[in-house]
Hints:
Layout: H1 18-33, H2 40-47, H3 51-57, H4 61-86, H5 91-107, H6 111-120, H7 122-150, H8 159-173, H9 176-181, H10 186-201, H11 204-208
Helix pairs in contact: 1-4, 4-5, 4-7, 5-10, 6-7, 7-8, 8-10
Amino acid sequence: MMHPTTKPNQLSATTPGVRSRIVAATRAHFLSHGFRSVTMDDLAKELAVSKKTLYAHFPSKIALLEAVIDEKFGGFESKLKHLSCEHPHDLSAFVHQLLAFAQQELDELKPSFIRDMRQKAPQVFEKVQRRRAELIERYFGKLFVEGQRTGMFRKDVSARFMIELLLNAVQAIVNPAKVEELGLTPKTAFESVIKVVLEGVLTPQGRKI
Length: 209
């Protein structure tokens, strides 16, 4: 059950941007408190909208969850594109900002949210897995190739192998059961995987940088 601290502005079906405002207000509750404990009644009351208005935009809680996930991934990818353009030739700066941003985004995810999504919305959880894999392949793939070109990463290990190693490590570790078993959070689990993979492929020059 949610416990709002402030009264949101009254929304109606005709309010401009009502859909995006619903998603934005719901995102924090889903990610912080989990998916299972939040009902559509809770959301309607929290947002000061009628359930009719809420269902007009989102026919189910699953549909609202998908919208929250799409917004999070959309923002994440937009930031990654920005970092790629901002540091096209400074690999060290790109790596530091990429990892800092990824850790910040993961800090928003709580084990209860991931566990609830996996159990109650497995199709959405699979979508998250696919999109995460796509982003890792796209941006870390470029990172590995550029790192080898500049001498920061070892050339005796293929970039494709590095990507597969990272994908499988993230897939195996960043899940609710394993995270809880190891006493980690999604953020600390990801940090550990990245540290092991990246430090393992750094050249002496790369370690100095």
